[in-house]
Specification:
Helix 1 runs antiparallel to helix 2 and helix 2 packs antiparallel against helix 3. It is elongated and about 70 Å long. By secondary structure, the protein is mostly helical. The mean pLDDT is about 90. The chain has three helices and no strands.
Length: about 140
């Protein structure tokens, strides 16, 4: 099997866009947590505390998503360097490892999104319960 130096470079644009999306998620959730913390200090509601715990889990997952995304990019660049230095076998294995890291990052992203969707569905069911109680 041969691997050309351009092949690992294909991951650059995709990985950088993914990392940007992860960072945007992280910043948005951090802002929501700050807002909920302020509200919790005033009200001391158990539901707010549960939301903060859920968001804290999501922050941890995003941190791992970023870690594996950056590791994927790093390994891809290192694979390119090895290919440039005519170390094709090691370069191929490192590129495969970078793809594995990207897959792990995307898998954790799927997990984080499913947690987010579950939380939103709980909010929607509360709204539907309130609406049904008024009718």
């Amino acid at each position: 099997m041969t691997l050309h130096i351009e092949t690992p470079a294909l991951l650059f644009s995709a990985t950088s866009l993914i990392l940007l999306a992860y960072t945007n998620r992280f910043l948005t959730i951090a802002q929501i947590i700050r807002s909920l913390k302020k509200h919790y200090d005033e009200v001391h509601s158990k539901s707010i505390l549960l939301q903060i715990k859920n968001l804290n889990l999501r922050l941890s997952l995003i941190r791992y998503m970023q870690l594996f995304g950056v590791l994927s990019l790093f390994l891809s660049v290192f694979a390119m360097l090895l290919l440039f230095l005519d170390q094709e076998t090691i370069g191929i294995y490192l590129f495969g490892l970078s793809l594995l890291c990207l897959l792990i990052s995307l898998g954790i992203s799927f997990w984080e999104i499913s947690i987010s969707v579950s939380a939103l569905r709980m909010h929607l069911s509360d709204l539907m319960d309130d609406k049904n109680a008024k009718d």
